[in-house]
Amino acid sequence: MKNLFLVLFLICIAIPLCAGSFPGIQLAGRVEPPELHPGQDGRWIVMVRMAEDVHISDASGGLFSIKPAPVEGVRFGAPRYPDGIAKPYGKIYRGEVAVEIPFTVESNSNPGERLFSADIQIQPCGEKSGVCYPPEIRSVSSTWTILAGRADGSTSQVRTGMAQKVTDALNRGSFLAFLLVFIGGMLTSLTPCVYPMIPITLAVIGAQASGGKRKGFVLSLFYVLGIAITFSVLGVLAARTGSLFGSYSQHPAVQIV
Predict the structure, then answer these.
(1) pTM of the prediction?
(2) CA distance 233 to 236
(3) Span 7-11, average pLDDT
(4) 202-215 burial string, b = 16+ CB within 10 Å, else e?
(5) CB atoms within 10 A of CB 154
(6) Taking the CA of residue 107 as centre, how many other CA atoms within 13 Å lie in the half-sphere pointing to its CB?
(7) In this predicted model, what pLDDT tens digit does every residue of 78-97 receive, in sequence order?
(8) Could you tell me the pLDDT band of residue 12, with boundaries at 50, 70 and 90?
(9) Do the Cβ atoms of 147 and 37 come closer than 8 Å?
(10) Three-state helix/strand/coil letters over the chain
């Protein structure tokens, strides 16, 4: 008789294990915002909903994890798990839990619909039975869209080579990149049209300085600062307006002035 009860007990435990996914748990996901331009950031929110008599182990014990599948043109950040409810036997999630996965759409991503999918490891526990079952793997997916062009209205272009490397380094705030750009600016000043201005500039400053080194230094300083400020303002205007600055600069009225 005892053996019969033991067999029935083992059968009762084995039935939910062999029946597939543990009941009482639902998965869902949404992408915010559902439409993004290349270069924009978004977040994928994965939600786990549990029945009243069900809870799952939290992420601190390694029994709850989300691993998104790679997506071309998208860089995922680390999932942000909420804190679980502290219990004597460990931390748990109850009711509904939302995990936020940040991501960035790369600047060279092609437009079109995308699919996010992920494997989720869950350890379900029945609160009435007091039994925690072995961890199981489930999947969740969400669809969203990459729009054509960039958010500022410009066209997204793929840049490769040295120009892309320098741009990425400047975005990271690399001192070496700023130094290289500065040296490059100095080298671009050594063009043939600049050479005739060197003796003229030296003659004008030398005549105004009347042989005084201090006055010559001050005149040279203001001369250089005037040129630097002028080109800096023009550079900022060109960067802010894009092709608009180039089209206006080619207008006959601007060239005459």
Answers:
(1) 0.52
(2) 5
(3) 44
(4) eeebeeebeeeeee
(5) 12
(6) 11
(7) 999 999 898 888 889 999 99
(8) very low
(9) yes
(10) CHHHHHHHHHHHHHHHHHCCCCCCEEEEEEEECCEECCCCEEEEEEEEEECCCEEEECHHHCCCEEEECCCCCEEECCCECCCCEEECCEEEEECEEEEEEEEEECCCCCCEEEEEEEEEEECEEECCCCEECCCEEEEEEEEEEECCCCCCCCCCCCCCHHHHHHHHHHHCCCHHHHHHHHHHHHHHCCCCCCCCHHHHHHHHHHHHHCCCHHHHHHHHHHHHHHHHHHHHHHHHHHHHHCHHHHHHHCCHHHHHC
Residue keyed to tokens 């997916």: 141
Q: Is the pLDDT of residue 240 over 80?
A: no
* Residue written as token pair 């600016």: 185
Higher pLDDT, 118 or 12: 118
Q: Give the number of other Cβ atoms within 10 Å of residue 147's Cβ.
A: 16
Mean residue pLDDT of the chain comes to 80
Query: Which amino acid is present at 57?
Result: S
Q: How many residues does the chain have?
A: 257
| 145-161 tens-digit pLDDT | 999 876 665 544 444 45
Q: How far apart are CA 36 and CA 44, in angstroms?
A: 12
As a whole number, mean pLDDT of residues 225-241 equals 83
Who wins on pLDDT, 206 or 49?
Answer: 49
Token pair 């100095």: residue? 186
